[in-house]
Amino acid sequence: MNNAIEITNLNKTYKASGKAGEKIALRDINLTIPKGSIFGLLGPNGAGKSTLINIMAGLVMKSSGSVKIWDRDIDTDPQGAKAAIGIVPQEINYDPFFSPRRLLDIQAGMYGVPADERHSMDLLKLVGLADKADAYTRSLSGGMKRRLLLAKALVHMPPILVLDEPTAGVDVELRQMLWERVKMLNERGMTILLTTHYLEEAEELCDKIAIINHGQIIVNEDKRALIGRLDHKEIKFLLDRDAVSVPAGMEGLAATLDDSRTLRVRYSPKEIAAGQLIDIIQKSGYGIADISTEESRLEDVFLQLTRA
Ligand code: ADP
Ligand code: MG
Fold first, then answer.
1. CA distance 77 to 103
2. How far is the CA of 21 from the centre of ligand 1 (A)?
3. What are the structural domains, with CATH classification, of the chain?
4. 70-106, pLDDT tens digit by residue?
5. Which amino acid residue places its CA nearest to atom 16 of ligand 1?
6. Which residue among 51, 195, 198 has the greatest number of ligand 1 atoms within 8 angstroms of its CB, and so is best to mutate?
7. Which of 50, 163, 216 to mutate to test the pocket of ligand 1 (most atoms within 8 A of CB)?
8. Ligand 1 centroid, distance to 136 Cα (angstroms)
9. Does pLDDT of 275 surpass 80?
């Protein structure tokens, strides 16, 4: 088994409640998450990310399809599946009266971790909360509460860690800290699945990315390949003398002058090579003092794909 998670033909329809009609949240999802990866599930609000991971975690009932966590089917072995996954939920949800240490002990107990194998203090150290071990949880800042949720997800040392929008609304410092911890856990062998609507986050952290929109997976591939799908590139030439218009021969291309010496060209590498652009410029009598290119941004791919 090379996959940490295997999802086949998964559907979810939320039943009508009150005035709202039925809501199809997931449509025929097929997804495999390789062991050892940091997998990003990227999508706009309402796309179905939380629904998908809450089904994996046994918190939401699926309508049809099959889900295997660490080779354990959530229908036939729900306990086994649950034991293989630790989840950091999107919402902060725990009893504010327990201290962080007590909270982790209780959580470990719920997962059947024997008292002498609990490591609540180590986990608190891991997330930088050792000095708050015996504080009132309700007195913690928002950022500390989020870190505590990460520790809570790890009490049973699951092989898979799932984080639902871990950095939505957190400050830059905490975001960096969470990213660091996630990378470290992954280096130690943990498979990570995170949902996000921040492209930057998926780009920075993940080696594989799936994009979900309106309950459907529309892309699922390596980050590099995904960025490569963007067929437009932008290149900037610094000319050796002032120009009043774009060089002759570039009229048909998306070429503009940022200023009299900076020529910006958007082009499709399939249609024209960068070398040809250089030829055109030189033939029209300009020298090139410098060249810079803009990397394809995941954001552009995302916008292209979710525009519909
Ligand atoms: P995301 O996490 O990507 O923002 P969600 O999985 O939370 O998306 O929601 C997907 C869709 O399902 C949304 O249209 C949302 O309104 C709907 N939805 C989520 N939870 C429920 C629920 N308990 N009852 C009815 N509809 C829901
Ligand atoms: Mg969500």
1. 26
2. 13
3. 3-227 (3.40.50.300), 233-306 (3.30.70)
4. 999 999 999 999 999 999 988 877 677 789 999 999 9
5. 46
6. 51
7. 50
8. 32
9. yes
Q: What is the pLDDT of residues 131-165, one digit of tens each?
A: 999 998 888 988 899 899 999 999 999 999 999 99
3-state DSSP helix/strand/coil percent for the chain, to nearest 5? Answer: 35, 30, 35
* C-alpha 34 to ligand 1 mean position (Å): 26
Alpha helices (runs of H) in the chain, residue ranges in sequence order: 49-56, 78-83, 100-110, 120-126, 142-153, 172-187, 199-205, 223-228, 274-283, 298-306
Query: Among all chains, which residue has been given the structure tokens 């902060």?
Result: 92
| 92 CA → ligand 2 middle, Å | 13
Please report the atom of ligand 1 found closest to the CA of residue 90.
2
| Nearest residue (CA) to ligand 1, atom 10 | 48
Q: Answer whether 0.85 is exceeded by the pTM.
A: no
Retrieve residue 16's tokens. 């009508």
Which tokens in the block code for residue 210? 């799936």
Mean pLDDT of 266-271: 80
Token pair belonging to 161: 């860690």
